[in-house]
Amino acid sequence: MQIAKNTVVQFHYTLSDATGVLESSHDHQPVLYLHGQPGLVEGLVDAMEGHSAEDTFTVHLPMDKAYGAREQDALQKVQVKHLHGAKKWKPGMVAIIQTEEGQRQVTVVKVGLSQATVDSNHPLAGKDLTFEVEILSVRQASEDELAHGHAHGDGGHQH
Ligand code: ZN
After folding, report:
1. Which of 19, 57, 90, 134 would give a disulfide with 12, using CB separation of 3.0 to 4.6 Å?
2. How many CB atoms are closer than 10 A to CB 62?
3. How far is the CA of 146 from the centre of ligand 1 (A)?
């Protein structure tokens, strides 16, 4: 089966930039996602289309196809209690905050008692990225998954 709208895809990836490997799903578990739903980087989703299980491929994404350029002036003050992902915060840590457009990753710059300064650039903004992808499986999405708009199971959404 080929990756197309409404298929559920499980894959491993290794992500690198010009300086080397940034992260790899081989360190934890493969990614499971419903093709055609937002969530993954668009350039990666486009490259997935038409591949099938056991395919491996490499996709190069210039920053404008990945997480965009870094913006100057992206510092924001937020309440420490609105930072998600850890209990104690130190500069350089990546936190998740809730915005009107959904969840967003930010980098902690300074932490006070109740307020923190964060850089709202995505941690991968300003980087040209390379994904090495290994497709593990492709299947038709279930009706539940289509109704929920996400994949269920290992590495996907758990209820
Ligand atoms: Zn669900």
Report:
1. 134
2. 10
3. 9
